[in-house]
Description:
Blueprint: E1 2-4, E2 7-9, E3 14-19, E4 22-28, H1 34-61, H2 66-81, H3 89-138, H4 142-158, H5 164-190, H6 193-212, H7 219-235, H8 241-272, H9 274-290, H10 297-313, H11 319-346, H12 348-379, H13 382-409
Antiparallel strand pairs: 1-2, 2-3, 3-4
Amino acid sequence: MTTDPWGRVDDDGTVYVRTSEGERVVGSWQAGAPEEALTFFHRKYDALLTEVELLEKRLRSTDLSASAAMASIDKLRESVREANAVGDLDALTKRLDSLADRAEERKVEQKQAQEQARGEAREIKERIVAEAERVAVETTHWKSGGERMLQLIEEWKKAPRADRPTEQALWKRMSAARNSFSKRRKAYFANLDQERETVRVEKERIVVEAESLAHSTDWGPTARAYRDLMQRWKKSGRADRASEDKLWARFKAAQDTFFDARNATFAERDAELRVNADAKERILDEARAEIPGITDPRRARARLRGFQEAWEEAGELPRDVRDQLEGAFRQIEDGVRKAEAAEWERTSPEARARAEDTVAQLASAISGLEAKLDKARTSGDSRRVKEYEDALEARRSWLAEAEKALDELS
């Protein structure tokens, strides 16, 4: 028989642990010397000791909640009680008892902190409500007063919550203050006929500008000019109803004339690009039929490069199918990338080589698109500038993902 202060191994290989309640069997050892058995079951005790020490550290140095701590303590207590280990299990139990006492103290502390937080939240929201009530009663600067009222609403939303009865009472006061301010402001503006006349004059100028642009063929700058005019329209306020309706009808008619002509021109251009769409649909069908059946990611990537080159050579797409076809092709590319990712996990050296190749290809594609973009900007072709910028944005995003994957393999 082999013994130590906390247990023993019987001649038949039965392993016992000693506790204050006496001895109990924790296992059987037939694979080697009795000393090895004690070493093995000591390691199990050390694992329990580590868990207790970790919990002590968490309770001492983190904001672990009392309820979570008690749950962990109960779980560890059960593990110690039934542990198939050799060591000072009584000492572990006492340490867990001490931890339970500390968790109870933390429970009280957390409750006190919660009450304090609710009191602070009540003070914050009472201050917000008091200022809202002051704005509602005193201010005659309607724009700044309205902005401040909105800020107070946002402050309310972001502030911590008090108890429910306090929240309801304070919100009732807040809502009443906001409604009072809105009523006073509406009543004030209802009587400002001169201001409405000023608005009417301003909108008349906006309409004249809009009508002067109705037949422009400088599509990009003119579209932006109409957007600016619309913003000016919205910010200028409201004239009397009759003038507002007439001016809006003129503004909309001018705007529709321009955008209808622009849409017709774009539709004609899209029709010219329809042959590109047909070509890319064929490329897409071929890629969908072939690439998913390639089980070797390297062969799939090599084949995809061919499809990508054909895709680029096919040219620009009409606007009405651009997003659909580009999105479908990206799904195929994504599928190849996912297959490569799985291969990277299995063979990291090969994964790095493929990642470097992907980065190089994307960098090359970006260089090509940047050259096209520079050429489009030089020629003043705003439509192609926008298309190349969109394409660059997508491929730069792909490049960032590829570079990230390459870094992870470094």
